[in-house]
Amino acid sequence: MPRGDAPAELILEVALRLFARNGVAGTSLQQIADALGVTKAAVYHHFRTKSALVAAVLAPAFDEVARATAAARTVPDLAQRRRLLVHDLAANAVGNRAVYAVMLRDVAVGAVLAEDSARAATAAFDELHALLIGPDGTPATVVRVGMFLSGLAAHTADATLATMADDDLRAGIVEVGEALLGPW
Amino acid sequence: MPRGDAPAELILEVALRLFARNGVAGTSLQQIADALGVTKAAVYHHFRTKSALVAAVLAPAFDEVARATAAARTVPDLAQRRRLLVHDLAANAVGNRAVYAVMLRDVAVGAVLAEDSARAATAAFDELHALLIGPDGTPATVVRVGMFLSGLAAHTADATLATMADDDLRAGIVEVGEALLGPW
DNA sequence: GTCTATATAGAGATAGAC
DNA sequence: GTCTATCTCTATATAGAC
Predict the structure, then answer these.
(1) What residues does the HTH tetR-type domain cover (chains A, B) (predicted)?
(2) How many other CB atoms are there within 10 angstroms of residue B112's CB atom?
(3) Which of A36, A180, B123, B170 has an alpha carbon 20 to 30 Å from A135's alpha carbon atom?
(4) B62 inside domain
């Protein structure tokens, strides 16, 4: 998936839209090709397998997670670190709702991640998880972190959130983050 | 799906386990039949379509939601109503993790619900949503409710929560509910 | 880089014997 | 109530022409 390849970029956009709406397993390459007005073979010219296409669709989100994790890693104070992560994650999740919906909610993504060209992605996510929890591994804290992360994709299953303006949704997520992981 | 039909009950259990692990779209009737040690035709004798099987798997959870909604409907005070719903939902979600995971996280369920033998189920869920929000429809409140509900299935995407003891997880969910929707 | 055509496998679903 | 066998359709994926 070369940089700046317009056809490939277009495939990724269309595929993401369909993955978010119907799930990865519920979206065939035929549907993607139809939505693009090309044939399946044209799609296969850009991505060797469906799995590679899924990985390419998710890659930007994984990169964002990796960047947020790297930034948070350098903040020793737990409260400040959580504040940074909550703000980053809220902005990222709202800024690209569809990819976060697929990444956080679609069970089929697990299979792609296990395929282990994506081990870096899972490692970054695990580290982010640990950075949010901090040294206190009590069940109460673990549940707070888990429910906050899960809630980053709440807009997918909630019609009211789905149509909410970006600013309101982002502010709401930050507020929830502070209620659960603050004060900071 | 007759009551007390042992084979049908067994099919539902096995199907739920596979749906929760691999998603509805990622689970074929062949896989379900193999896990049961029977053929596809035997499964089709109990459920006319895959969609009917999915609906039957989810029915107990929809009934629980309907009961919790009916109970909450009679509580006029918002704080007390939220307290009741948070406790009910936490107990239900932890008591049957797999079915809540499928119901809240699987995009393929949306298609089954749209099929509209299940309109009662969506109506109950919509009312529950409204009962949790109350008269205050500000974005902040809507996001709190949406993220809490989404978080009821957090155990699916979080290995630490997946292995957490029922009591700890339920208490954690209640605590998150109070932090987001309390005090009561 | 996109096409037609096809290989192969598996999906959902049904018929009819036992 | 379960089986074998089969239908039809669609899935992923590939070969090779243009």
Answers:
(1) 5-65
(2) 21
(3) B170
(4) yes
Report the phi/psi class of residue B173: left, alpha or beta, with left for phi > 0 and alpha for psi in -120 to 50. alpha
B87 contacts chain A (CB < 8 A): no
Residue A154 within any structural domain of the chain: yes
CA of B36 to C1' of D10 (A): 26
A130 touches chain B (CB under 8 A): no
Question: How many angstroms away from the CA of A9 is the closest CA of chain B?
Answer: 25
Nucleotides of C under 7 A from a protein CB: 1-5, 10-16
B6 contacts chain A (CB < 8 A)? no
**The domain containing residue B51 runs over which residues?**
6-181
Cβ density class A150-166: b for 16+ within 10 Å, e for less: bbbbbbbbbebbeebee
Task: Kindly report, residue by residue over A89-121, the tens digit of the pLDDT.
Answer: 999 999 999 999 999 999 999 988 888 778 899
Q: Which of A23, A154, A158 sits opposite B107 (nearest CB)?
A: A23
| B128: in domain | yes
Look at residue A1 and tell me whether its pLDDT is greater than 60. no
Closest CA to A179 of A150, A136, A145: A145
Please state, in angstroms and rounded to a whole number, the distance separating the CA atoms of residues B4 and A168: 49
**B70 min Cα distance to partner chain A (Å):** 21
Per-residue pLDDT at B118:
84
Q: What is the CATH number of the domain that holds B173?
A: 1.10.357.10
Question: How far is the C-alpha of B87 from the C-alpha of B164, rounded, in Å?
Answer: 18
